[in-house]
Amino acid sequence: MHDLITPQGIIPKLKAGSKKQALHELAKRAADVTGQHERAIFDVLLERERLGTTGMGDGIAIPHGKMSSLDRVYGLFARLERPIAFDAIDDQPVDLMFLLLAPHQSGADHLKALARVSRTLRDADICEKLRGCESADAIYALLTQTEATQAA
Length: 152
What we know:
With 152 residues, the protein is α/β, with parallel strands linked by helices. It has one domain (7-151): Mannitol-specific EII, Chain A (3-Layer(aba) Sandwich), CATH 3.40.930. It is built from five helices and six strands; from the N terminus they run βααβββββααα. The protein has helices spanning 19-34, 38-51, 108-121, 124-132, 136-151; strands spanning 10-14, 55-57, 60-61, 64-67, 74-84, 94-103. Strands 1, 2, 3, 4, 5 and 6 form a six-stranded mixed sheet that branches. A hairpin with a 2-residue loop joins β2 and β3 (60-61). α1 (19-34) crosses α2. It is globular. The mean pLDDT is 92.
């Protein structure tokens, strides 16, 4: 995860009342992290959601998209203050979101990043700990430490 996410890419208490608002807030933060235009990121995320929800169930969503202007895969993580309706596959509200943005030409790197994030967030223990973390530093440490533990 070290190559995907930085401490600046962690939002420990995202305030959003809807899926669209959550995606907009993530796009705003992603613009700071990636140097891309907020509106362009938001549009990419909305376009992807039109293809099908990125709400994977159990309170988790992994919104993602590709942008030709990116130089690498970027990740952001947000824990929502309150769960929101997200059209998830299990119809449950979402409170954990991991945003992935990749270059158009990333191919396998984008899929590997999605698989890595999905594998991490399918772990119920990790999700429970993420829901209990209050600070960006604690969330970052958990996400990056978890991967090191899984690799060992």
